[in-house]
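Sanity check record (used in CI):
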Amino acid sequence: MQRSCIILIVTAFLLLPIYIFATPILKWLGQEDDIANEAGKFTLQIIPQLFSLAINFPAEKFLQAQRKVKVLAWIAVLALVIHIGMLTLFMYVFDWGTLGAAVSFNLTRWGISIAQAVYIMGWCKEGWTGFSWLAFNEIWAFVRLSLASAVMLCLEIWYMMSILILTGGLSDAVIAVGSLSICMNINGWETMLFVGINAAIRCCNWRWMAGNGCLYKLGLLLHFWTSSWIRSLPCCKFRSHAALQTILLLIILYKTNWNKEVEQATNRVRNWGGQDIKTGNGAEST
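Expected output for Protein TRANSPARENT TESTA 12-like:
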């Protein structure tokens, strides 16, 4: 977990130029000034949450590995309630507009990260033994282990974001992007189940399979772009693609030899993680 935090903090610093120069980058990509200026301003405002993710994601995976799923659920529910309250206060009472949304987003993200970290250090005594300089040992091996996951996630996220970028090149781009953004948010709520199953596939190390699915989606962009009905792109298109992918993944999961997967995972972590693996009784695995 500590290695992951270190890697992600460094990555956050590397991503900062994209956040800082978002406005000129979007204009270079052909976005209208109204969209580029507003998006660039909001991107600058949410820079603090970028660094919270460097703690949030590793802590989340740590708690999942410790079977502390209920804790994650309660933190998420509490954060959601507080987030809605802050949005109402900052955006409608104080009339801060997008600044209010950004402040709420930053506070919620950091609140989740801090809550997870406090729980790990205070109540996960068996899994947490304190900060250690050993986190810097074999860190490059751990980076290599992370690269495949990073590529898969980037393809998945870029697929959705690329649609927005392409839509920004249409006439009446502000209306088109706004409509598509609403559509994507609704679709995001509906595909939570599919995302969970997809994640079960960044865990089985079948990233090549998930990557193929992402490339398939990227191919759809050309179809959307060359179709005149992109303005009225329906949510059902996204749902049908996600549902089809989920059905195929469920079939694969059903036919998988999980004992063999455990053995392969153990070997991968030993080879790439730079450390020996311990079995449940504390003995070194073979």
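Residues 138-260 form one domain. If this sentence no longer matches the regenerated tokens, the check is flagged for review.
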